[in-house]
Amino acid sequence: MTKYVIKRILLMFLTLFVITVMCFVLIKLLPLPAVREMGKDINLVLMRREKMGYNRPIMVQFFLYLKNIFTDWDWGVGEQMYEGLEIWDVMMQKLPYTVVVNLYSILISIPLGLGLGIYAALKKNKWQDTVISTMIMVFISVPSYVYAFLVQYIFCFKLNWFPLQLASLSQAGSLFSGKMFVSMIPAIMSLSFGVIAGFTRYTRAELSEVLTGDYMLLARTKGLTKAQAISRHAMRNAMVVILPMIFGEFIGILGGSMIIENIFGIPGIGNLYVNSINVRDYNFFMALNIFYTLIGLVSGIVIDISYGFIDPRIRMGSKK
Question: What's the whole-model pTM score?
Fold first, then answer.
């Protein structure tokens, strides 16, 4: 298991390095945006460009870029947005919005998804299972931004229950205030539909398979009631597959949702990423691209490794 973990981590860094090189080279082949007139900040941007070797070959620029990150934790400064501000500082200011919205969404989605999946598995091939399965297919097939527009139209425009956009800190007072939470509800709903459907589908599939196992029949013949057999045996075996998905979702909250954040005006990491592409701020794009790639790679490793800890019968990387 230890060798497998080390191997996966090394492969993760290799993959991250390759993706970073590809993105950096492709970005440097694009035209360099002109520096906007920004008063005293223009000198700071020009100094940073000189430090990062903008007038040197691309690969020299790349190694200078890595050197600045590893030695000074210097990711550069904004050139087309947040001009002259440190990129890392801006990202850390935006990250709490992304984390809070996605955390609320996951905390609501997980129990609802598990509950619906368990209910559908226990009512397999009955009308309740048919209704839930049909809803799952619809919610998984339709993109999240479609739900976002529907939520905005129905709950924000027609019923006027919630504001169309996220409240600002000056209006709400705090990121965890009641007013801020109410303004987050439309975004939370839009993010939750797909997650609930995903957990419902996997829970139903795994539990339905487990319930037909021979050991479940043996447990019933030994005197256990149906509820006892399900809680003690069926759910424990079904969670071997479901728990790693939950771990992956919690890691993924750092990434957020680029489209949902833009629709509801959430000043998070996803919104920052889209804006960096639109205005061609290459420094922000590179930093956020590395950030998103690392989250995806770490999430995959955690999901794989968690199988071995949840079920001791699974030994990653073993050869037999």
Answer: 0.77
